[in-house]
Amino acid sequence: MRNILFISFVLSLSLFLYYGCEEEQRNSEEGYIICGVKNPDWFMNLIEEIESDSLYYGGSIIYQHKYKDTYFFHLEIPVSSCAYCRIYDCDGNLVEWSSETEFQDYLDNRTNETIIWP
Fold it and tell me: Percent helix, strand, coil in the chain (nearest 5)?
């Protein structure tokens, strides 16, 4: 009986965390809301680029992170030798960190990691 209660609790907590996250950023069948904009051109172009080259981008994932009250989008490409080279801001600009310290701060303090594609 305890196992059933524990499993029910874990499932309920998982569902709460999934549906309780900021829905504004979550993808859906109707499209993607990125920083309050539905299907921004830069994001749709990025998805098109990924889907057009499955050899290079196969298994790629786009994550959303929040850092210092701002959303960032990390394109993880499994075959790339550069793990964090493709991080975008809300406008689709590649992020250029001013220093290794700032980049490390981003890695250490980002929150709300969510897979938004695929």
Answer: 40, 25, 30
Look at residue 28 and tell me if it is in a domain: yes
Q: pLDDT for 11-40, tens place per residue?
A: 444 434 444 444 344 455 678 999 999 999
Mean predicted confidence (pLDDT) in 2-14: 47
What pLDDT is attached to residue 2?
Answer: 59
- Reported for 85-88, long-range contacts at CB under 8 A and 24+ positions apart, including other chains, are 88/42, 88/46
Is the previous residue joined to 78 through a cis bond, with omega within 30 degrees of 0? Answer: no
Assess if residue 3 is contained within a domain: no
Domain membership of residue 102 as a residue range = 24-117
Residue 104 lies in a domain: yes
- Total domains in the chain come to 1
In 3D space, the residue among 98, 63, 70 whose CA is nearest the CA of residue 84 turns out to be 63
Contacts 24+ apart (CB under 8 A), 74-83: 75/46, 75/50
Q: What is the dihedral of CA 6, 12, 13, 14, to 10 degrees?
A: 110
